[in-house]
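Why this split exists: single-chain examples teach little about how molecules sit against one another. For that reason, every record in the complexes split bundles all components of an assembly together and asks for one structure covering all of them. Below is a record exactly as it appears in the raw files.
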Amino acid sequence: MEGIILNDHTKYSLTDKQFSRRILLQNAMWMSGAIATGIGSWVFPAKWSHAAGPIKVGIATDLTGPISFGGIPCSRVAKLAIDQINADGGILGRPLEMYLEDTASNEQIAVGVVRKLVQRNRVDVVLGGITSSMRNAIKDVIVGRGRTLYIYPQLYEGRECTPNLFCTGPTPAQQCDDLIPWLIANGGKRFALPSANYVWPHVLNEYARKSIEDNGGEVVLEEYYPLDQVEYGATVKRIMDEKIDVVFNTVIPPGLGPFIKQLYEAGFLKRGGRLSCVYYDENALNFNAAEEMEGLASCLDYFQNIDDPFSAKLQAAYQKIHAHKDKVLFTAGSGSTGMYRGVKLWEAAVKEAGAVDRDSVAAALDHAKIANGPGGPSNIVPGTYHCQMNMYIAVAKAGKYEIIDKADQVHPKECG
Amino acid sequence: MEGAFQIIFNVLCYTSIMILVVLGLGVIASMMGIFNFAHGEFILLGGYTLYLFHIWGLPLWFGIVAAPFVVAIVGVVLERTIIRRFYAAPIVAMLGTYAIGVIIRETVRGLIDGLYLRVPEPLVGMFVVGDISVSKWRVAAILMTILVVTISYLLLNRTSFGLRVRASLENPELARASGISTSRIYAATFGFGAALAGLAGAIITPLMMFNADMGLRFVIQGFLAVMLGGIGTFEGSAVGGALIGAMASGLPYMVNPILADVLVFVVAIVLVKLKPSGLLSKWRA
């Protein structure tokens, strides 16, 4: 028997009209068409109107595909913020109209739908994108050819200094400056940086390494893995053999679960090792059994149990609206906090500018401020396109976060 | 000594996972000539069954037992309604099964809100002997793999069902002339392949993160394993899966993990080039 077996049906069916090149092509065209166009567009008009018409807010995020765990809450938070603004009388007397597009965790689809937002719907601002590759794919469509303002909400590796593009999530400086000295004091000096092989871990690790060395620590191991690797025996052995004190992890799901599990099974935590991972939010508490991630330290702009009345109110408002209370959470790691901050900072800027044209709003956004937001007040540091915000260190204890430390108004240290 | 044991155990465990994953794929490719691109999603459905047992608070062992049956039913229904229309055109079959896979994957993603979830092991804890400690569930996974391979081998090579399956494969017209309903055999074979995928999914889910893309990772390496082992034989798939699994988990001890990932493919492709019909193809047919 050689090669692929063509079974009996082949013989009589090849002459059959069922199988022809035309039908094959038709099938392929139908499928590629179905995959390419999608159906993920929604418009949410305000309940009231104004003579000048609504201000149009475009939200482009990943409602389907692998990144949807972030995109779904992100879109819900955007809707929540916009509804709140509309309930308070809109901006400049005009209501906000939300145009939601599904970027489907796919950059090619995203470019198409974002072009639609900018060119056909003529939105006044676009917020969205979770991954850096998504931001890079859509930013030129929005701020370059599209001449529209773009706000990117997710924590990321920094270095995005494009005019008219504002980033409202934490940067490496904000996530490391407070955390690394804490890890050295509460873990030890020998660090391992196991990482997924893409841009965020590479650039974050550059910053983390410098911070570790400046604080008297040492990076013993820095390794990169294919994004979908699920077997980490070799890495875990190296971490155990090298007597690593702190694992500063940037491995992401799906590899993350098996990695943390294998590390635990090898006795890393029992030996007193400290885990750390700066994207760990409340969603991540589901990733592993509580005992496998005991003592894991994270540093983010918001945790659900921080002591901030405004954040608590926001969290309650989100949970009230969404039935899946315990599933799709309003967290910092999904870009949701940056999304809320982004909408509100943009609102402040439009109010100050008294207009919605890009240049006036961008000029006002450059120093925009909000007194309340998830995690506390925030403002854009002039000339940096990034936000100053409170940062919190939390440690996982028995499947919950305990807030260990708070740093007030940490500077993003980007673009300047 | 302890280090060496850990390496061997880890490699053995991942190799078992790979064999489990590849078996169903191999059975369907070998016995039916269909490259089932929805195999990863059958694995996902097996995992989803276990996940449902977990959130419903039912004993997880029942979930492990139920998974292959649930996925077998899905497999048979798909075969009867859709897959059988594709036998004439292997290329369209690939596209068609791919489409089925996308539908299953995105449905499950919708059901779990795109999240990464944890399903606990039915057997929690570690076996500790002196300095050596190993996870009980990993040991169970290895043992179940051995059991599944043995039972499948006996079923296909020592029973009259296996004989009819092989007859339908080797000479369908003669098989039909001898009174074997090849159409029913194909449905059963597809269901059997799907059941193997479902079982694999249920066994590996506690060791992975349960998520909609769980099966994708394994399918590409799985196809390579089937090609490597040789299409047309059950043993070929098992050996191919073992080789790929051992390389994927063993190479990172020697070289950089990114390089290891590529090397697995390079070595496998070179082997396929040297023996185009697969390592074990000469044993049969």
